[in-house]
Amino acid sequence: MEHVDVAVVGGGVTGLSVASAVAERGHSVCLVERHPRPGMESSTHNSGVIHAGIYYETGSLRAKLCVEGRDRLYAFCRVHDVPHARCGKLIVALESDEIPQLEELARCAGENGVNDTELVGRDFMRQREPHIEAVAALWSPSTGIVEAEALVRSLARRADELGVMLLPGTRLERGTPSETGFELVTSSETFAAGVLVNAAGLYADEVSVAVGGEPFAIYPVRGEYAELVPRKRHVVNIPVYPLPDPSGHSLGVHLTRTTWGSVIIGPTARSMSSKDDHESDRVPIEQFYRDVRRFVPSVEPEDLRVGGTGFQAALSRPDEPVADFLIRPDHRSPRLIHAAGIDSPGLTSCLAIGAAVRDLVEDAL
After folding, report:
1. Helix (H) / strand (E) containing 85
2. Which one of 98, 277, 329, 330 has the fewest beta carbons within 10 angstroms of its own beta carbon?
3. CA distances from 177 to 181, 194, 211, 358 (A)
4. Considering only the top CATH level, what class is 219-314?
5. 143: pLDDT confidence band, cut at 50, 70 and 90?
6. Would you tell me how many other CB atoms lie within 10 Å of the CB of residue 64?
7. Residue 305 backbone dihedrals phi, psi, to 5 degrees
C-alpha cells in the first residue's frame, strides 16, 4: 500500500496552505479534493477582502491568525504576483449615536494588535468616498482586497512545486485510524497516511465521522450578493462597511470594489439546511437596495443586479455565541488534525492557519 507522511482533505485556501507548509518541512504530502480543481467552494465565493483583524474577540484564534495571516498574505501576493491592493476600508456610522460603537471597534482592534485604525469625520470620508453619506467612520488602512481565484491558483502552483501530490476529483470515503496513522479509502484508491488533516470546509463534520474522529456540526451559512451595474461603479472606491451585527455572526451588507473593477454588495447571511443550495429563495434585489441606500443615497433600484452566492462553514448556530476556529488534534484520534469551522476571516488567515497546522502535524509525527 502506498504511504505518505500527511494527507490533507480539502483543496481550498486552508488545505492548500497546510499542504505547502507541511511539504516545506520535507514531508510527503497528498491533498485530496473532491472537485475537479482546488478552491471551487468557499475560497472563491466571498468578498475577497483582506481583513485587518478589527472585529474578533481578543485572544481568539480568529484574532491572532487574522493579524498574522494578513501580513503573510500581503507578502505572498507581492512575491507571487497575485492581484491585490492594500486599499483600506471605512466602517461607517450613519447616526451620531453609533459613534460609540466605532470607538469600541477601535478599542478591540488595538487589543488585537491592529494599531493603525483612526476615527474620522465627513471631510476625511469625502476625500476617499464622496458618494458615501455618514456622520463618522473608522478608517482601517491595513484592510485590502485580493483576487481569490488567482490566490488559489498561486497556492496550488506553490504546492505542486513543493511536491504535494494533488488528487482532484477524488472523494474521501472512509478512513481507519491506527497507532501509526490512517488507512484511507478514496473514490479512486486506497493509501496510508501518518497524519490526516481535515480541512474539508463545509464537509469537515462528515469527514471527521468517516475517519472515526469526534463528532461536531458544521452549520452552512449562505451569503448572497448583488452588484452595481457598470455605469454606477464610480460611487465606490474602497470597501465600505456598516457597523457589524451585534451578534457577531455578520459584518453587515457592505460594498467592495474588486481587483477587476466591479462593485459587489453583500453578503447576506442565512442559515441553510443544505450545503449546496446556492439559488433557492434568493434575497430580492430590493433588500440589497434598502441596505445600500442607507449610506449611498445616489443609488437607485435599477443600479443593482443579482450577483453570486457562497457558503461559510460555521461551528455555531445564529442564536449561539460565535464559535472560534477549530484548529487542534482530534480528541479520539491524535493523528487527526482538524482545521475546521474556518469561516471569515478564513481567506485572510489561510497562510497563518497553514503554519499553525504544520506545527501540530510535526508534533503528531
Report:
1. strand 84-85
2. 277
3. 6, 10, 7, 20
4. alpha beta
5. very high
6. 19
7. -140, 160
Indicate the CATH number of 3-44+149-217+322-364 among 3.50.50.60, 3.20.20.150, 3.40.50.10490, 3.30.70.100.
3.50.50.60
* Residue 248 pLDDT level (bands cut at 50, 70, 90): confident
Residue 152 pLDDT > 90, yes or no?
Answer: yes
Instruction: Give the sign of the dihedral formed by CA 301, CA 235, CA 149, CA 360.
Output: negative
Least Cα distance to 326 among 316, 317, 178, 318 occurs for 316
Q: How far is CA 100 from CA 92, 93, 138, 156, in A?
A: 12, 9, 11, 43
From CA 158, how far away is CA 120, in angstroms rounded?
40
Residue that the C-alpha cell 465627513 belongs to? 122
Which residues on adjacent β-strands are paired with residue 30?
7, 165
Domain regions of the chain by residue span: 3-44+149-217+322-364, 89-141, 219-314
The structure's pTM equals 0.97
Report the first-to-last Cα separation within the chain, whole angstroms.
Answer: 19
The grid cell for 6 is 500527511
